[in-house]
């Protein structure tokens, strides 16, 4: 009988790598093993699991270094495999997931500070994403205001675009702050997971609430002004 | 970049540069060398080692000399050797200072200012 595949919404985002790894380990104890991640822009993530015998395994998420958004460099896989880790996937291509069934396998990062150091390129990439999102939102916002000022009713697609850019900016800010805080904690020697058991997918709820907010603003601008 | 601008090397960094003193090394050889040389006191995780090798490559302390499949071999550069020697001198000075300070301790009947005592 073929093992079933199941989809779950992660309670923590992938950018919180320590917590995400802890969540994957919890799922493995329930017999669900990570297979892949549907990664849409920023927060919309869902994880595909494959059923298997429940077991205590270790998942570690290595932040991409050097060339961001690329496959894991062969040198990195070689080093991990030598220490008893198996490469699983590179979701979103900004990190690499490894699994080990060996409880004695050497921790990939022996100190929190070394993990913090490895996160530097990713933090820099997030910063660039944030700047891009700011610029796009500012440009679109300026155009939107210009159309309003010139008494032209903004077109629906422009409102949609502004909403999407607003969402993108919002999650860029959230992701950057989260990653920055995580790195600061690691630099101070604190490597604790923010994942403490099952939690409702708060990010999805937040996404719905924020989307509603933007839609209401759009409706207000379109219908009342 | 001069070593004075760079700051001190961390213990794993120091051991990695030490591993290159007599031959070119690949990642696995470095891990084994550090483990043996430090008598299992320093263990380099694969993530830490990869991060530090990348850092040394960026700084020009080591260079890649061969790629065979997944295996990458590195060589220390003159700048890397200088970094290692500077750190060695700094550590030696620290030990000498500490040994001299030990001699000032009252009621310390045995006093040998050589760093080896510590």
Short description:
The complex is a heterodimer of chains A (about 220) and B (about 120). Chain A has about 220 residues and is α+β, with helices and mostly antiparallel strands.
Between the first and last Cα atoms of chain B, what is the distance in angstroms? 33 Å
Global shape of chain B: elongated
Instruction: Give the CA-based shape of chain A.
Output: elongated
Question: In percent terms, what proportion of residues of chain B is strand?
Answer: 5-15%
In the predicted model, the low-confidence regions of chain A spanning at least 5 consecutive residues are none
Strand content of chain A: 15-25%
> Quick one: how many beta strands of chain A?
6
In this structure, how is the largest beta sheet of chain B organized? 3 strands, antiparallel
Helicity of chain B, in percent?
Answer: 55-70%
User: How many strand segments of chain B?
Assistant: 3
> Whole-Å distance between the termini of chain A?
61 Å
- Please give the order of strands in the largest beta sheet of chain B: 1-3-2
Report mean pLDDT of chain B, rounded to a whole number.
85
Sheet/helix structural class of chain A: alpha+beta
Helical stretch count of chain B?
Answer: 5
Number of helices of chain A: 6
Percent of residues in helices of chain A comes to 40-55%
**Estimated radius of gyration of chain B:** 17 Å
Biggest interface pair, counts: A-B, 25 and 21 residues
Please describe the biggest sheet of chain A, giving its number of strands, its sense, and whether it closes into a barrel: 3 strands, antiparallel
| Mean pLDDT reading of chain A | 80
Tell me what the structure shows:
The complex is a heterodimer of chains A (225) and B (118). Chain A is an alpha+beta fold. In chain A, 51% of the residues lie in helices and 16% in strands. Chain A has a 3-stranded antiparallel β-sheet, covered by helices on one side. Chain A is elongated. The mean pLDDT of chain A is 80. By secondary structure, chain B is α+β, with helices and mostly antiparallel strands. A 3-stranded antiparallel β-sheet of chain B has the order 1-3-2. Chain B is elongated, with a radius of gyration of 17 Å. The mean pLDDT of chain B is 85. Chains A and B meet through helix 2 and helix 3 of A and helix 3 and helix 4 of B.
